[in-house]
Specification:
The protein is of the alpha/beta class and about 475 residues long. The protein is about 35% helix and about 20% strand. The protein contains 18 helices and 20 strands. The strands form four sheets. A nine-stranded mixed sheet has the order 3-4-5-2-1-8-9-13-14, with helices on both faces. Helix 9 crosses helix 12 and helix 10 packs parallel to helix 16. The radius of gyration is 23 Å and the shape is globular. The structure holds adenosine-5'-diphosphate and alpha-D-glucopyranose. Alpha-D-glucopyranose binds next to helix 1. The site of alpha-D-glucopyranose (GLC) has 14 residues, from helix 1.
Length: about 475
């Protein structure tokens, strides 16, 4: 095997160390996927409380007496096969709450916190640490948007991936100095965005290439309905914008070997029934028809408000719903109210529970994803793999990965779920009723389940696209 090329990935989350959403799954999976393509990827994240304890054989590879106000160091260690560079800056990251907020809301110094991460990442890219210097840097979302900006004028190419354009890293202009920026950076072709600073825009302006996590979302981003004010920037950079679909970790998500469930396969699909029984018990449900699940951040993006006005006919027709999620208070309340109104048919658990999520995909017949926008989405992919057929809104990665049942797709033996549009309660209601009628034709349903389970959502294809992009950018560099 030839010499491995080197790429530094910089992000605010990565499994198995810290996760609030799909970003962490993707950042944690990419290094393994890219290794097979000849690229050694190391992952840099903040050392939030507890992170250093999980690192094996950690050693200091860089330090500063004053990083945005106090001493900091970079610890390199391993977790499994992943090589992690954790930025240990207690004044910024050693906190009791989550990565971005605590009970009182977003941390007031989020700008400084992630500017510091970005600043050190740019430094690592320029000088290398621990005898390792990357040829290219790959950053993710607003938290690391300043890395390409800080690297302008260097010979190190950068890629930024948009996982969600709703989060833009907006800070008041007064923060320029605190973020290591000057008035000269505050231009329309710079970090300025509607009178504020946007660290995401900084990344989109300065990176050599922009990717996002599905082809459909790449197109959507250039339109006002989805671009959230950045559509103009993306239109301008259209030639450098690529939609590369996320993969899933097919070892963690394998119904044949999953230690959290009673295993089953496309060949022995009847065994999925045990999981459904367990799930019904766990949620106190007694459902005869299709059992739908929802596993999600409970926020506006995820279309949670559409469920209550849409679901009654589905429940009347014998369907049921099990919900696992946490998020905005109004959305949690709406779900709990639904469970109270339909005992035995709707069950809700508020919280975050990885293991339970495995049991839900294994036991559910369908996974509901009514998102208003969805850059890629991972739960529909886990659902496909576990024969838990997706019922999804026709947006972003959902539209790219689920083949909706229509007379034509059924005849062509291609359908793997239900796709509804527009994204409103009426279309969702009709989608749910379609699900019931598909479910009632048992032979047909079983054929769809088997087809869904056989599809390959592993990383191989997408990893080769990232590798090709790195190749192009590094050969252009001189
Ligand atoms: P997003 O990143 O926008 O939240 P994705 O579908 O890309 O959406 O990723 C969400 C990830 O978080 C999936 O791995 C999903 O299974 C997981 N997840 C979301 N909510 C919960 C929860 N309450 N408990 C366990 N896992 C959850
Ligand atoms: C974001 C998006 C989600 C995507 C994930 C990983 O959180 O909301 O659609 O799957 O990032 O790319």
């Amino acid at each position: 095997m030839g010499k491995m090329r080197k790429v530094l990935s910089v992000a605010s989350e990565s499994v198995p160390l810290i996760k609030t959403g799909g970003l962490a799954d993707v950042v944690g999976a990419l290094p393994g996927a890219l290794a097979g393509q000849g690229w050694e990827m190391r992952v840099m994240i903040p050392a939030y409380r507890g992170v250093l304890k999980s690192l094996k054989a950690a050693k200091e590879v860089w330090q500063s007496a004053d990083l945005f106000g106090a001493p900091a160091r970079l610890m390199q260690g391993k977790v499994g096969a992943l090589v992690v560079l954790a930025l240990d800056a207690p004044h910024l990251f050693d906190r009791t709450g989550g990565p971005y907020s605590d009970n009182a809301g977003d941390y007031a110094d989020n700008g400084e916190r992630f500017a510091a991460l970005s600043y050190v990442a740019a430094e690592v890219a320029r000088i290398g640490v621990g005898g390792w210097k990357p040829e290219i840097v790959h950053v993710h979302d607003w938290q690391t948007g300043l890395v390409p900006w800080y690297l302008r004028g260097s010979d190190i190419p950068s890629v930024i991936t948009i996982h969600n354009i709703a989060f833009q890293g907006r800070f008041a202009r007064e923060k320029l100095g605190a973020l290591g920026l000057t008035q000269a950076d505050f231009q329309r072709d710079g970090v300025e965005f509607w009178g504020d600073i946007s660290t995401l825009k900084a990344g989109l302006m300065a990176a050599d290439a922009i990717t996002t996590v599905s082809p459909r979302y790449a197109d959507e981003l250039m339109r006002p309905e989805f671009g959230m004010g950045l559509e103009g920037v993306l239109q301008m950079r259209a030639r450098d914008l690529h939609g590369i679909l996320n993969g899933i970790d097919t070892e963690t998500w394998n119904p044949e070997t999953d230690p959290h469930i009673s295993p089953f396969s496309a060949k022995k699909i009847a065994d999925k029934g045990n999981n459904r029984r367990v799930l019904q018990e766990e949620f106190n449900l007694d459902v005869k028809g299709p059992l739908a699940i929802l596993i999600s951040r409970l926020t506006d993006q995820k279309g949670i408000d559409l469920i209550a006005p849409a679901i009654e006919p589905f429940l009347m027709a014998g369907g049921g719903l099990a919900v696992l999620g946490s998020g905005d208070r109004w959305a949690e309340a709406a779900m709990l109210e639904l469970a109270a109104r339909y005992p035995g048919q709707v069950g809700v658990k508020i919280g975050y529970d990885e293991v339970l999520s495995h049991r839900m995909f294994a036991g559910g017949d369908a996974v509901l994803v009514p998102s208003r926008f969805e850059p890629c989405g991972l739960t529909q992919l886990y659902g496909l793999r576990y024969g838990c057929l997706p019922i999804v809104a026709a947006v972003g990665g959902l539209a790219d990965t689920v083949v909706g049942a229509t007379p034509a797709t059924m005849a062509a033996k291609a359908a793997t779920g239900v796709v509804f549009h527009p994204v409103d309660a009426l279309a969702l209601q009709q989608g749910l009723l379609k699900l019931v009628s598909l479910y009632e034709d048992r032979a047909q349903w079983r054929a769809m389940v088997v087809r869904a389970m056989k599809a390959d959502w592993g990383w191989a294809q997408s990893a080769s696209r990232y590798a090709a992009l790195y190749d192009t950018l590094t050969s252009n560099a001189d």
